Amino acid sequence: MASDRSSLQALPALRLLQHVCLSFAAYLRRYTPSEVDAYRRETKSLVTRFVKNQLPFESCIYSLDAALLRLISRMRPKQLNELRSVMLANNELVMEEMARRGKVGDC
Q: Which residues contact 79 (CB under 8 A, 6 or more apart)?
């Protein structure tokens, strides 16, 4: 009988713990940036430095490739479209800057 009573008393504590764990998991899903978001921030920084002449073209390309390589190992298939749009936007910005500098044919 005593074990039944302690089991019944533990039930609300288990429910509370389950509720807290599920709430925390929902919080992490909502506020943890995805891998693509991290890639977007990193590459935005690289492209910005390139546009401000703080990073040479070759270093910019190598750095963008390295960021992509780090991302691919952690990526989920459903993120491919988002990744593609970020990559195309980065490419467009770099090519526009190279055209502005008059070096598009030299690449």
A: 34, 35, 36
Give the separation between CA 26 and CA 20, rounded to whole angstroms.
10
pTM to 2 decimal places: 0.63
Q: How far apart are CA 56 and CA 28, in angstroms?
A: 37
Indicate whether 4 pLDDT > 60.
no
CA 16/CA 43 separation, integer angstroms: 42
User: Please, are residues 63 and 55 in contact by the beta-carbon 8 Å criterion?
Assistant: yes
**Gap between the Cα atoms of 64 and 42, Å rounded:** 9
Res 105: pLDDT: 53
